[in-house]
Amino acid sequence: MKDNFLLIVVLISIAAIVFLIWLLKGRKYESSQSVASSYDSWTNDFLLEKLWGEHIHLGFYKTPYKLNDFKKAKVEFVHELVEWSGLNKLPKGSRILDVGCGIGGSSRILARDYGFDVLGISISPSQIKRATELTPRDVNCKFVVMDALDLKLSQGSFDGVWSVEAGPHMPDKQLFADEMLRVLRPGGLLAIADWNRRSVKGKPLSIFERFILNQLLNQWTHPEFSSINGFKNNLLNSPYFGGSVETSDWTKFTIHSWNDSIFEGFRRPGVFLKLGPNSLLKGLKEIPTIIMMRWAFAHGLMQFGVFKARG
């Protein structure tokens, strides 16, 4: 009897989530302009900034997990990736390109805490405008609108390239890898962190997994997820690749971010009062996708891949 009741609860919950997602107007990827429009909207309504701070990416949590401030965990993530990738070994004044810079949170840390000369790029004009507004004059950052698949930058012009959670928006993963490596000087360092789907070799996706992935793609303007090994091969196969590449799965260090991304709404209810009732509706509409992301990472359908390479 108890098992039947639990099954009914699970089925009703799944049906409710599916119904909510159906009700939502998805943000299906159509072109780079659809990505720009989505991020323009997220930036201009200020909801993510007020709840999550200057970093849109996930946070890093030491194990065992302890309740942490989400914004602090995001800053910790930047420092962890800098150290893991070896960027901290570059001298002050090194030129760093931040691909998919958002509103500049990571760029400012790279410039302020490590003394780098940082150029942040985004496809979203609103993100670039806000990143510029948030950056003090004494912080060595510049932000410009630019397509990551068509970098208007000279070959070998950067000592380091940094990109966090931008890859899923790229329709051509090989070109994405090529462009980042092209602008990296010989011996320069590449640091990337991305949402990746699991490998399908030897274990094809089930119908349910395909449904979940389709929702994750369509709700947040993603054309496709690559696997960790798939993007590693993109780096290895690039004509500009000249060094080494290493990968790791940081899912266990970042998965608590999905819980906290929802909890922030309860911790900071004043945000909704300040931004108005429409902001609460927008926040509620994101919850089903966040729950699906949490499930996908917890069950191995998605993995948080980090990559470091030399040019």
Describe the fold and architecture.
The chain is of the alpha/beta class. It has a seven-stranded mixed beta sheet, with helices on both faces. 49% of the residues lie in helices and 16% in strands. It starts with a helix and ends with a strand. It has one domain: Vaccinia Virus protein VP39 (Rossmann fold). α6 (125-134) links the parallel β2 and β3 (141-145). It contains 13 helices and seven strands. The longest helix has 22 residues, at 2-23.
What descriptors fit this protein?
single chain; 311 residues; alpha/beta; Rossmann fold; 7 strands
CATH class: Alpha Beta
Strand content: 15-25%
* The CATH homologous superfamily: Vaccinia Virus protein VP39
**Corresponding CATH architecture:** 3-Layer(aba) Sandwich
Helix and strand element order: HHHHEHEHEEHEHHEHHHHE
The figure for the number of domains is 1
What is the spatial order of strands in the main beta sheet? 3-2-1-4-5-7-6
Number of helices: 13
Mean pLDDT across all residues, rounded?
Answer: 92
Work out the number of β strands.
7
Portion of residues within helices:
40-55%
The radius of gyration computed from the alpha-carbon positions, rounded to a whole number of angstroms, is: 19 Å
How far from one another are the termini? 61 Å
- Give the overall shape: globular
Coarse structural class? alpha/beta
Low-confidence stretches: none
The CATH topology is Rossmann fold
What does the largest sheet look like?
7 strands, mixed
